[in-house]
Amino acid sequence: MEIALLGNPNTGKTSMFNNLTGSYDYVGNWSGVTVEKKVGVFKSNESKLIDLPGIYSLSPLSEDEGVVTKFLLHDPFDRILNIVDASQLERNLQLTIQLLEFGKPIVIGLNMMDVAKNRGILVNVEKLGEMLGVPVTPVVARSGKGCRELEEQVTTHFDGSFSSNLVDYGKEIDEAILALEALLQNHSAHSTRWLTIQLLEGNEYVKDYLTTFIAESNLDSLIQQTTEKALANSNAKTIAQFIYKQRQAAIAAILKESTKRDENKGIPLTEKIDAIVTNRWLGIPIFLLLMYFMFMLTFDWLGTPLSDALDGLITGPVTDGLTNLLNAAGASEFIHSLVIDGIVAGVGGVLVFVPQIFILFLFISILEDSGYMARVAFVMDRLMEKVGLNGKAFIPMIIGFGCNVPGVMAARTIETPRERLLTILLTPLMSCSARLPVYALFVGAFFTINKAFIVLSLYVLGIVVALILASVFSKTILKGETSMFVIELPPYRVPQVKALWRSTWDKSKGFVRKAGTIIFAGSVMIWILSYAGPNGMNVAMDDSFLAMIGGIFAPLLAPIGFGNWQAGAALLTGFLAKEAIISTMNIIYFAPTEAGLQELLSQYFTPLAAYSFMVFILLYIPCLATVATIYKETRSKKWTAISIVYALALAYVLSLIIYQGGKLLGLM
Ligand code: GDP
Ligand code: MG
């Protein structure tokens, strides 16, 4: 007898496999993919157990997951052993129901009984079996408890008749089943009910299979008609979601009867925290509050004093030391100015912000390691779903807060090409750490009382714009269905100091390294451009090449509040790296200290113009490294160009609205 081992990821399938089987009959790969195929022989008899990839749903998101559907459709086997995690029944039963609908005899191994017990979940195993209509055996695969009973259950004869229509999907879907039945004319040996539901859920492999009997256009019109009818009086957005919700309702009813909470146990801490943190109404406010706290820490309580101290060190002893050194070496006026006014001002101006960056990353690392970030994705899912993405896409975006480059790369974890591309396009809108120094400088100069709030508003603006654009893109150039979101919520834990240190450093080192490379080179270049002009060397700044180049853009920038060549030049260098904006300003304004620079800035910017400028910096263009990464990840010149053009247009329009609107409202 051949038995297929199926279940969600991490439910203990491999542990069970090792427990039940003694020797391997076969180890290889499933055809077409790199997923390992293992077939084991039972210890006590000749039955074979086939290990399949863990999946949350039959409808596959990736080729690897398609293995299971292909197996069910084409491979001969006798029974299914479905491993179910007793502590995660609600999610696990989604798959179980799809397997029941398939119609082959099933035995359920209810694993992780120990975990469920610890979490205060009491499962009435008999009742659960009765309601599902199949044998359920409780086990602990890790210790081997219950495995003998399960083995006996699965290999000996049992009455394989059970109801395969546990879930009532409504009359529209029942009609679709009859329609497919008529189209199939007994050509397929598989359950028509199962085929119909899988087809409607978007299972490509089932559709492929059906096209061997039925013209694709017929299938498409069946899907379309059923979708229209079923969604007409439902609040589901897609037919897949509709089916998912029907199943969810049936599962809730089953669990209500067959599980209960252990009264003596008390609710576990993780669940107590989650009840608040992932609450429908509180989830997003809590996230915003935490971000606000993070910026207070970065800008007011800790980061700024540290940065000021570093600034004092660089502009004081370091500059003095270097000046003495240069004088002693008899350096020329040119070299002296290059080092002090170019490199020290440019690189030092950026390095000053290292403490703030570090604190920000430490905070983000704490949120990640404690398990909170997974909750943020979960909380954001509801919003993301409305705009054609799912919560998973928020994770690359959060990474993008650190640096857009790894953020764009993290979009690889998103399975559907449409959502992946969308995420890649939107991640650069997340305010990365390189933009932080610009905010720090400007809020320090113009918004001393509510620094954290102003910075928070910029971060939130990035997110909101991304959500709106996602919605626009998914209605226009990137149409398609949103895939279902499944995420493991790990239990909360106290982050370990060593791990925290490592991940904070991993994130910050890029910033430091960039200061030594691209910012260094950029500073030299900018300084030379500011030192030389059409009329020779050592010209007044306003007659330099830099002023000429920046001046080209100045008229364009006037309507958005900063029509001076300095801003134009800074924005141009900002494309190389956003920190270069700070370097450029330090060099241009020739400011001896950060405080001095802030004072000078107020001659060129009003507070309103400063806010408009920060919004422009947030949105106007992904930096060079990000553009290169977008190209690498999409392999498309078109999408890379779109990512630049839309950002520029968006930045200009928003800054225009903010500046002109602000002026109309009488703001300065
Ligand atoms: P698979 O991904 O479904 O193959 O799951 P694995 O067999 O790799 O198990 C995932 C994790 O759960 C491993 O760390 C196992 O040791 C653990 N595990 C498996 N079964 C049990 C169980 O019954 N109780 C507990 N506490 N842990 C288990
Ligand atoms: Mg495994």
TrEMBL record:
The chain crosses the membrane at residues 281-302, 343-367, 387-409, 453-474, 511-532, 544-562, 569-591, 611-631, 643-662. Mg(2+) 2 binds at N18, T21. The keyword DNA-binding does not apply. Keywords: Cell membrane, GTP-binding, Ion transport, Iron, Iron transport, Magnesium, Membrane, Metal-binding, Nucleotide-binding, Transmembrane, Transmembrane helix, Transport. One of its GO terms (molecular function) is ferrous iron transmembrane transporter activity. It comes from the Bacteria. Signal peptide: none annotated. InterPro entries: Fe2_transport_prot-B (IPR003373), Fe2_transport_prot_B_C (IPR011640), FeoB_Cyto (IPR041069), FeoB_GTPase (IPR050860), G_FEOB_dom (IPR030389), Gate_dom (IPR011642), P-loop_NTPase (IPR027417). It is a multi-pass membrane protein. GO terms for cellular component: plasma membrane. Mg(2+) 1 binds at G22. It is found in: Cell membrane. It holds the Pfam family Gate. Residues 1-160 form the FeoB-type G domain. GTP binds at residues 7-14, 32-36, 51-54, 111-114. Belongs to the TRAFAC class TrmE-Era-EngA-EngB-Septin-like GTPase superfamily. FeoB GTPase (TC 9.A.8) family. Probable transporter of a GTP-driven Fe(2+) uptake system. PANTHER family: FE(2+) TRANSPORTER FEOB, FERROUS IRON TRANSPORT PROTEIN B. This is Ferrous iron transport protein B. It comes from Bacillus benzoevorans.
